[in-house]
Amino acid sequence: MSAHPRTSTHAATRAESIIGEPEVVEDAAAITGAVEESPHWLALKGAVAALQPLQVKDGSVPDPVDHPAAREHVATIAEAVRALAPRFPHDRDYLDAVRDDLARWADGDFGIPDFLASLVAFHPESHRADGMQHLVLFPMYTQNGSTDRHVEAVLVEVIWPDFIAGLEAGDYSNALFVPIRFLDFTAGYDTNSAVLFPESVATSSIPAYTWGAIFADREAARFRRVLREAASVTRLELPDDAVRLLESQELTERTFVMWDLIHDRTHMRGDLPFDPFMIKQRMPYFLYSLEELRCDLTAFREAVRIERRLSAPDAPGVADAPGVADATPGSSPERTPADAELLDHAKLVQYAVLFDRIFRFAITGSRVRNYDGLGGQLLFAWLHQRGVLHWTDTKLRIDWPEVADAVLALSDAIDELYWRSIDRPKTAHWLAAYALVTSTVTPNPASVWARGVDALPLDGPPRGLTDAVLDDEFPLSMFYEALEKKMRPVIESTAGITGRD
After folding, report:
1. CA dist., res. 267 & res. 259, Å (int)
2. Does 275 lie in the same domain as 158?
3. Are 260 and 177 in contact (CB under 8 A)?
4. b/e 116-152 (16+ beta carbons within 10 angstroms → b)
5. Structure pTM?
6. Is residue 383 part of a domain?
7. 196 with 307, same domain?
8. pLDDT tens across 374-430, in order?
């Protein structure tokens, strides 16, 4: 898609000034060094930092006294974008639209920003090549970071190894998925935020979203730091492949890309209760826990499927993948280097899902409707109660040959819940989901839900059921209470982390 027609007088003046593009040619000839060290990027970053305190929550600059300073900062940002644009020829339309949107915002005396034109023009999903770089600038909030729609900028690099390209081109198509790593960022990303989503951008209307980006380097870096400490605290003896993840940031990044590729596409695949997120309504947070866990366990399941297929004698090709339960030897040629790389990462994805869930997810964030935390608690308790995970003599031990089938059993239980939900009323589905969770994780003794159906307001609107869920409906177990206290400093240290840290 192309950007909206330009209407700003600033844009018209700029368009006339680059006929023949002498300035652009001059800038292109001067491109040297890393973009994040460029004086133009540093100027842009400084101007964004100076502009943000002038903005209120909705992104506007309401005080006329601040407008002269805001115009100066916006002019610096626009000039920096112009100077940096030759480094990103694949994003020329987008960067042109960004400058137009900046000019239009200034012309409108800095009301609520509308960057619809530039958002529509940005298509990182069209340039999924390993090492491809983008300059991204929008007024936006950063999930798990700032909730203010302030101007933010980030320099990113795409992670797209050949084996991921092969997966995506085959059974795991996901045209919207863009895995990236940080090169540099402004304050909104000096947080726990590890996603770049178009729906967070300030726009006057909602366009069709064509991409979603995930910072695999941040995910990998905090996983490695947390796992290293958790293994030490719990005295867990890690398998050799898990140790390799601790030793290599690049290997872990690629592992997370494979995990995220499959997780992301799963949200709209399978036997779903119409829309698993029910975006436009409130619902008990444990339903979000099950949906996120379902997607992660699907990634785990597919990793097991790939490992078992490629480990079999005369393994079939990628496009012929059988189910986990009925994997049988095929008659394909010997395993290719690409298959060997895929097999390696399939094993590593299983460790990544397991350890990130039980160590980081379970004890990260507040205890207010922490749905990812509950998913980690559920996975840990499920494995413990099935005799696969052991906490004995203050030492954690895992029976590795039994892990895959135990995790798949939890995945099956959630899939069964979803399959049956299609024939159930909403409240009945909610009750069944609660029963699944409480069959493994103990609810808060003060919970109304835990008292049973007779204690719940079933004769009113569904919001009454949601309101009855406690903020911490499923408190941490004694194991996790102790672990959280020991792990808190390390988990807090991962805010703002990148693959270079």
Report:
1. 13
2. no
3. yes
4. bbbbbbbebbeebeeebbbbbbbbbbbbebbebbbbb
5. 0.89
6. yes
7. no
8. 999 999 999 999 999 999 999 999 999 999 999 999 999 999 999 999 999 999 999
